[in-house]
Design goal:
Helices cover about 35% and strands about 25% of the residues. The protein starts with 8 loop residues before the first strand and ends in a 6-residue tail after the last helix. α4 (about 105-120) packs across α8 (about 220-235) and α5 crosses α7. The chain has helices at about 35-40, 65-75, 95-100, 105-120, 135-150, 150-155, 165-175, 220-235, 250-255, 270-285, 290-295, 300-305, 365-375, and strands at about 10-15, 20-35, 55-65, 80-90, 125-130, 180-185, 190-200, 205, 210, 240, 255-265, 325, 335. It is α+β, with helices and mostly antiparallel strands and about 375 residues long. Strands 1, 2, 3, 4, 5, 6, 7, 8, 9, 10 and 11 form an eleven-stranded mixed beta sheet that branches. A two-stranded antiparallel ribbon has the order 12-13. α1 (about 35-40) links the parallel β2 (about 20-35) and β3 (about 55-65).
Length: about 375
């Protein structure tokens, strides 16, 4: 397993509405990132030992069909799916011309048209600069950093091209070992887009990319990506181009295949972690907020008359703690202890495809338990 450290690292778990982060909490987690080769292997990873002071694990690019096996391996930890996505990749088998011909006719025509437009603005030819040696990368970095500072990746996501000393040392070390490729695209003499790709074994990694938003109408990123693919096919030394985690139209367009993956949290079943998972589920805007809280805190609500037997569906596993892995279509998932039998009819409507409103039995509550029961009315069955 690549870069698995037994020691836990602080991780910020964000509470978001849309693209806006309301707040975040820190959890001490052992990162378990899967490489593309590991994701394609079809095998669940082995979890390293975790210190008792740590909150659990964060597993990224886990094949979705291996989630149940990993939850069982975790021995009662609470699973929560942070996101689902296809991990796209391009297989370098064959030639560039064969790959390009495999794209849709609309995609081919669009890319040619965009490249021709940019070339016309740059004196008749595309102005693409290529970088791979330490000296070349030293010249690449400040120009790419200036582009990165204008991008939404950096301004909104904090994922622009790094500028710290550690990254510069790593970049120089990779370049000295011939394990990095980078490109810049100029339009009319002005830097417009960059692409930075380290190499792991025979796989090229789609690490940092961006373009100046004032060139949005020119699609410089797609044109630069196409030039990079032509160069990489031409080297005839790589097996795959890994588009890494997350979705994107350009990834789907250029990829030849993909693996259905999840990013999975595995947390110790403490009250604080249950609260965190409930709030995270709410922040993803797929469940009404009472649902998450009644799962995390609402065992009393279940006992006081609100309940429903969880339903399992194909592909969803069961933890050793005896709870079902309940998930919404976008990905939130956690273990819910099986409640008592339902004490009332289930009205139709409401909830998501995996949830149904439940009614509470007419039973007197204290004010505290009444509030809990009210929250329980939107518990996922």
């Amino acid at each position: 397993m690549q870069d698995v450290r037994a020691e836990a690292q602080p991780v910020r778990l964000k509470f978001e509405i849309g693209a806006r982060t309301l707040l975040s909490v820190r959890r001490s987690l052992v990162r378990v990132p899967l490489t593309l080769a590991e994701a394609r292997s079809g095998l669940a990873p082995a979890l390293p030992p975790v210190d008792r002071a740590a909150d659990g694990y964060i597993v990224t690019s886990l094949p979705e069909d291996q989630m149940a096996a990993l939850v069982a391996q975790a021995g009662g930890m609470l699973p929560f799916v942070r996101q689902r996505y296809t991990r796209y990749y391009l297989d370098f088998a064959g030639t560039y011309d064969e790959w390009f011909a495999s794209l849709s006719s609309n995609a081919r025509q669009g890319l040619r048209r965009k490249a021709k437009k940019i070339a016309a603005a740059s004196g008749g030819t595309l102005d693409v600069r290529r970088f791979r040696t330490p000296e070349e990368l030293a010249a690449f970095h400040p120009v790419a950093r200036a582009i990165s500072a204008t991008t939404y990746q950096e301004r909104l996501l904090g994922s622009g091209l790094p500028e710290g000393a550690d990254f510069l040392r790593s970049m120089t070390r990779l370049a000295a070992a011939d394990q990095v490729r980078a490109w810049l695209l100029n339009i009319a003499g002005e830097p417009a887009a960059y692409l930075y790709c380290p190499i792991h074994g025979d796989t090229v990694i789609y690490a940092y990319v961006g373009h100046d938003p004032k060139f949005n109408d020119w699609s410089p990123g797609a044109v630069l990506q196409l030039e990079a693919m032509q160069d990489l096919f031409g080297e005839a030394r790589f097996a795959a181009f890994d588009f890494t985690e997350g979705e994107g139209q350009h990834k789907r367009q250029f990829a030849t295949s993909g693996v259905e993956c999840v990013d999975l949290l595995l947390l110790r079943p403490t009250l604080a972690n249950r609260l965190t998972m409930a709030a995270l589920g709410d922040s993803m805007a797929r469940w009404r907020w009472p649902n998450g809280w009644c799962k995390a805190l609402g065992w009393a609500a279940w006992r006081n008359g609100c309940g429903g037997a969880p339903e399992s569906s194909p592909g969803e596993g069961t933890s050793e703690a005896g709870g079902e892995v309940v998930s919404a279509s976008c990905g939130p998932a956690f273990v819910a202890t099986t409640p008592p039998p339902l004490r009332g009819p289930l009205p139709s409507g409401g909830g998501s495809s995996r949830s149904t409103p439940c009614t509470c039995a007419p039973k007197p509550f204290s004010s505290a338990s009444a509030r809990m029961a009210s929250m329980g009315r939107w518990c996922v069955r």
